[in-house]
Amino acid sequence: MSGYLKDGQWHEGWYDTGKTAGEFVRTNSKFRGWVTADGANGYRAEPGRYHLYVSLACPWAHRTLIARVLKGLEGAISVSVVEPVMTQGWSFSDALPDHLHGFQFLHQLYSAADPRYTGRILVPALWDKQTRTIVSNESSEILRMFNSAFAAFARNVVDLYPEALRPQIDEANAFVYDNINNGVYRCGFATEQAAYKHAFDRLFSALDRVEGNLGQRTWLADGEHATEADWRLFTTLLRFDAVYFGHFKCNRNRIEDFPHLSRYLRALYRTPGIAATVNMDHIKRHYYMSHAHINPTRIVPAGPRLKFMADAAD
Ligand SMILES: N[C@@H](CCC(=O)N[C@@H](CS)C(=O)NCC(=O)O)C(=O)O
């Protein structure tokens, strides 16, 4: 099960939707430091100094793994992956260890960063070995740091947030975050019919709109290459037919039923390096086995056969 730390102590507990008319309200990330090339904020970009904690199931953590691979930062930033099924929240095992501290649970990392930490224990978390703290646990900001601050150690020259496209990217991000990335969670974690239906309608009208846009252009921002806006949408689309459609009841259509969105999903999935960041087993086991209030039997569905992954294996 999931839980949180209060003054550094672990407590079991889920989000309280009783106060918000059955609506799931996401909590804010609390560690908001910034790594920069010159270290002006106390965190200088240096190879080997930072360690990224992720879940391969989590769409937010997945963005940061994608940025790390696209930039070619694998040698500069090391990674530990948590077990997909939550116990005392996110945990480690012999197969998936915490390479730095040998902790059993991710909440121990949060207590190590701040012994009085109060809040949820989220992935991703970027750990600084030098000051022994979590620099950031906000995926959108970690993604930007990987894109810019670490440029000197990046093997690939790729800009996921190019200057000229920033207004378009910012607009796409805000729309996609509210309606789609977080929209699927709002459907799945709603505890009142009206809150669910509201989130469902918003989600599918947003997908209809993106489907229309992708009929006119290749990427969300009108440039030649995919940007962070596309990768942020990708991590939700990728999980949609396997998890959100069934487990989160986002079942008006599958992504496979949208011609442009499925073309787009396949193109992003086939980008070199990306398929290796996708672990459908972790994704399915995490959602179906960690949310016992939604799926009490914890049975993980055997299907569906995902066309975009099957095609890519050809
Ligand atoms: N705004 C955060 C959200 C991260 C987040 O919600 N992560 C989820 C996994 S998908 C988590 O760790 N949840 C654990 C919990 O809520 O107890 C980000 O983008 O970094």
From TrEMBL:
Q: Does the keyword Oxidoreductase apply?
A: yes
GO terms of molecular function? oxidoreductase activity
Tell me the enzyme class. oxidoreductase
Q: Where is the GST C-terminal domain?
A: 162-287
Stored InterPro entries: Glutathione-S-Trfase_C-like, Glutathione-S-Trfase_C_sf, Glutathione_S-Trfase, Glutathione_S-Trfase_N, GST_Omega-like_C, GST_Omega/GSH, Thioredoxin-like_sf
Keywords annotated in UniProt: Oxidoreductase
Pfam family for this entry, one = GST_N_2
The EC number of this protein is: 1.8.5.-
Name the PANTHER family for this protein: GLUTATHIONE S-TRANSFERASE OMEGA-LIKE 1-RELATED, GLUTATHIONYL-HYDROQUINONE REDUCTASE
What this protein is called in its record is Glutathione S-transferase family protein
Instruction: Provide the species name.
Output: Variovorax robiniae
